[in-house]
Design brief:
The protein has 419 residues and is an all-alpha fold. It has a single domain, classed as Up-down Bundle (Growth Hormone, Chain: A), CATH 1.20.1250. Helices cover 80% and strands 0% of the residues. The protein contains 19 helices and no strands. The N and C termini lie far apart (43 Å).
Length: 419
């Protein structure tokens, strides 16, 4: 283990993955604690959706703006360090909220702090990864820690604390790991000394750094569209599946915590498997196939009436779709645009997904749930996964091994990724 950790690429992967895991531990806390918070503060389904979408809105805006600012400054570590410290403080503020509006304000501020963490972290990972490990490393960085801590461990820990003590204490506990992450970043993350070009080194850079130049790349605007529906698929699941399990299917809080933890366990394992498959089989193929599999998750939650353990198994297998997020959100953009524009590009793709999928979908889902029942947002979730799969068919392939085969067949990397 010490020998593995001595290589900076591996050490950076460990620290950034763990740090982003603490980010999602905080972010997902609202979804897992929603049944308890709603009961205490008398919240409607629409208000639950607003609390989820509020964080997504400011996450999206700060992700692009601060990511682009880090590109312009050429510095990554200071932005990352401050962001981690601030979002940890916001979790404590959430636990102090005595009304819907105070909680809403805390979630808005948390989104501002958390937004730039992913684009900056993925930029660092892209710059320090060997080409044949880029997809795997970026997948692990974005999905492993976030799902192990934020999706697998968080529901078990936070729901148990809320059930036996108080939901406010759960928010206080959620804020502590972020301070640990800040120390790890300060100690182990190095400021890049030079820009390391991504795979598509033959790309002709756009004429200037304007937003419109990023949109000239087909993979960029297509990834933005995919992000809109993919984030909606994921956010709708996290926001409304816990409430549906307890209110409609009458599972206990412990059973609900287990079912949500299963999703986290699946995403943790698939954070390695799915991106690694994209290194070998191609980014486009993996995005399409696994997205379509993801449409089965809400359908299983709605209609499967067999043994509890079998429902857990089905959810585990179908939530493998979570592994495609870093592929279209970070890896494909990093292999498409010039390296000095990666943070802005990742922030743009992530931001569009958060604004449309993260902000609008939970509001729409909450509204549908209030007028048509809690099954409505889950049906919307299934439809979003199907759309992601269809859009994925139009992506240009960027995986190094697949691009090499394309070159041998007479198609250059520039042809595969140009605007």
């Amino acid at each position: 283990m010490r020998r593995w950790f001595s290589h900076y690429e591996n050490r950076l992967l460990f620290v950034l993955s763990l740090s982003f895991g603490f980010v999602f531990f905080d972010r997902n806390a609202m979804s897992f604690l929603a049944p308890f918070v709603a009961k205490d503060l008398n919240l409607s389904n629409t208000q639950i959706g607003l609390l989820v979408s509020a964080l997504s809105l400011t996450w999206a805006l700060s992700g692009y703006l601060l990511g682009a600012q880090s590109d312009r400054s050429g510095r990554r570590k200071p932005y990352l360090l401050v962001a981690v410290i601030v979002f940890s403080a916001c979790s404590f503020i959430s636990g102090l909220a005595g009304s819907f509006f105070m909680l809403l304000a805390a979630r808005l501020l948390m989104g501002v702090a958390e937004g730039p963490i992913l684009p900056i972290s993925q930029t660092l990972m892209a710059m320090n990864s060997t080409p044949t490990r880029r997809g795997q490393n970026m997948g692990i960085m974005q999905n492993f820690g976030s799902n192990l801590l934020g999706s697998c461990i968080a529901p078990l820990v936070l729901v148990a604390i809320a059930s036996h003590y108080d939901w406010r204490l759960a928010f206080f506990v959620a804020g502590i790991p972020g301070l640990m992450a800040a120390w790890l970043i300060w100690k182990y993350v190095k400021e890049p000394k030079a820009v390391i070009a991504p795979v598509a080194t033959t790309i002709t850079a756009p004429g200037n750094d304007a937003l419109r130049d990023l949109l000239r790349y087909r993979n960029v605007w297509l990834s933005m569209l995919i992000a809109c529906f993919y984030v909606a698929w994921m956010v709708l699941g996290w926001a409304f599946m816990p409430v549906y399990y307890m209110n409609e299917r009458h599972f206990s809080s412990t059973e609900m915590g287990i079912l949500m933890s299963v999703l986290g366990a699946s995403a943790t394992i698939c954070s390695y498997i799915v991106p690694a498959l994209s290194d070998r089989l191609g980014r486009r193929t993996v995005v399409v196939v696994f997205s379509l599999i993801g449409a089965l998750t809400p359908l299983a939650a709605l209609y499967f009436d067999g043994p509890f353990w079998m429902l857990c198994l089905i959810l585990f297998l179908t939530w493998s779709a979570s592994g495609v997020a870093p592929i279209f959100m970070a890896t494909i953009p990093s292999e498409t645009v010039p390296a000095h524009r990666i943070a802005a590009c990742v922030g743009l793709v992530m931001g569009m997904g958060e604004i449309v999928g993260g902000v609008l979908s939970p509001i729409a889902g909450g509204w549908l749930a209030d007028i048509a029942g809690l099954s409505a947002p889950l049906m919307l979730q299934a439809a979003c996964a199907v759309v992601v799969g269809l859009l994925g068919l139009w992506l240009h392939e960027t995986a190094p091994l697949r691009a090499k085969h394309s070159q041998q067949d007479g198609l250059t990397v520039k042809d595969a990724t140009r605007p």
